[in-house]
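input
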Amino acid sequence: MQPIIIAMQFMTRIPMPNIGVVDNSIVGKSILYYPLVGVVMGGLIWMMQVVFNWLWPDQWGIQAALLLAVWCLLTGGLHLDGLADSADAWVGGLGSKERTLALMKDPTCGPAAVTLLVLLLLIKYAAIENLIKSYPIGLVLAPVVARGTLLLLFLTTRYVREGGLGEILTQHLSVGACTCLLVILSVSLMLLGEIGFQVLLLTLLFFIALRHLMIRRIGGTTGDTAGALVEVIEMAVLMAVII
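output
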């Protein structure tokens, strides 16, 4: 249970019992439960959609806005922060690995970050407004698939910043378990039919593109770029569902 609790504590703001100090190997295993965190998040978001639809029937705009607010509250803006830091670092880094990594640590939010955050949230809002009318299960798929791609990222991409959770995750990563989970997730998507194939295809395209940008600029990934990946993949999945 400890890895599950650690995963929930790190990835969400859902109250969890305090388990104290644990071994790094236990912390490393928590990444295997990131897709489960997505299931919990998606289930809660879907249940809130049922409630909102009861309170405001057919008011898709207000439902979408409230669901997006719930989504952000569940994570505490963790991944949005990573997206913002990555945006500012990419623009201000001027192609330099060292400058890009340094800017990611800057707590201030520049115009690039604000612009990208607004655009991403607008796209998410529009996608949510459309999918809740016909395929609300997409509210579950997006957080699950996005957190599943973190396994693929850490499995295939070097972590370039010393210290922190990311280094622990890569040091104690179980290649076999991660591969098995990714296969299960991919097969599960394909069993959903056309929508599942659309989600899988768009997810892979966005993942490959973002990973390429990471490697070309900083030679790997960091916690911030991993957070950015989650946000972008969530957006991609929501878009894929409504194609």
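quick obs: Residues 2-241 form one domain.
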